[in-house]
Amino acid sequence: MDCEDLAELLTDLLEGDVDADQEAAALAHLASCEACERVLAGTRDVIEIAHEHGRAALEPDDRQRMFRELTAKIPDPPN
Prior knowledge:
Blueprint lengths: L2 H12 L5 H13 L1 H20 L6 H13 L7
Helix pairs in contact: 1-2, 1-3
């Protein structure tokens, strides 16, 4: 699993909506990628806020923009 794959699964991973193979691959990647660990922590915080204060409806364009902005902050893996 690479950083982009993990970014696509983060919310499902945090909510327990991934299969065992996906979870194992995600955890293995997180163990070796500090950038993804930071993104995971930030995503966890957002989910906690949403649970505390309710969810806001997002337009598809806004959802895509936010996803692009989050994934743009993930550095390319070292060669």
